[in-house]
Write a structure and sequence with these properties.
Elements (H helix, E strand, L loop, with lengths): L1 H16 L50 E10 L12 H13 L4 E6 L7 H21 L8 E5 L12 H7 L1 E8 L19
Parallel strand pairs: 2-3
Antiparallel strand pairs: 1-4, 2-4
Length: 200
């Protein structure tokens, strides 16, 4: 019994003589919490660490590949059976050229349209020539790069107005510009044209 008591006293004395360090271990940073490209996504989660400033990104830090488009009818009409562009429409085409100059990442599809007069095959070609005529003005006069402009002739497949009088025919002989960009066009509101709500 004496021996057991002595052993307990010895153990208690040894424990009391030891200093227990209660200082917590420094936390090791397992993940990089910095945001090198300033897109709001930490480096540890950023799968696209070189995003351009101001580009909208998803939860992985990557921009969208979505293509944004806007459709607008140019105030350009044509005489019957003609794809000659009257000089009076040059200011309207210049507005499109200035828009594309100010926003160099935009591209455009120029759509040519016709009235219902004539055959479908003939009007397809006529409408294509109308679109090409607008492209030629954009490239030669306003120096918009040709690769940014595509053309298509839709004939009378997408009429603006239904009917069979001269006023309706004239309105259907028109041009539609479809602007596209991989950057949201919301901030580029198309203040130079009125939206053609009737076109498809």
């Amino acid at each position: 019994m004496k021996a057991l008591t002595s052993l307990l006293l010895l153990l208690l004395t040894a424990c009391s003589s030891q200093t227990i360090d209660m200082t917590p271990e420094p936390t090791q940073q397992l993940f990089d919490l910095s945001d090198g490209d300033g897109d709001g996504i930490i480096q540890a989660r950023d799968k696209c660490p070189d995003s351009k400033p101001g580009v909208k990104v998803d939860s992985n830090g990557c921009g969208s590949n979505k293509l944004y488009t806007m459709r607008h009818r140019l105030d350009v009409n044509f005489a019957h059976d003609s794809y000659s562009v009257s000089p009076k429409y040059l200011p309207e085409i210049e507005k499109l050229a200035m828009f594309m100059t100010n926003f160099p990442k935009t591209e455009v599809i120029i759509e040519g349209h016709t009235s219902i007069q004539g055959s479908a095959q003939y009007n397809k070609k006529l409408s294509e020539n109308r679109a090409i005529a607008i492209k030629d003005i954009l490239t030669s006069r306003y120096h918009i790069a040709s690769e940014r402009i595509a053309t298509v002739g839709l004939g009378f497949d997408k009429l603006l107005l239904q009917g069979n009088d001269e006023y309706i025919h004239e309105k259907n002989r028109r041009i539609v510009a479809e602007i596209s960009s991989d950057v949201s066009l919301d901030f580029m509101k198309w203040t130079i044209y009125s939206v053609d709500n009737h076109s498809n």
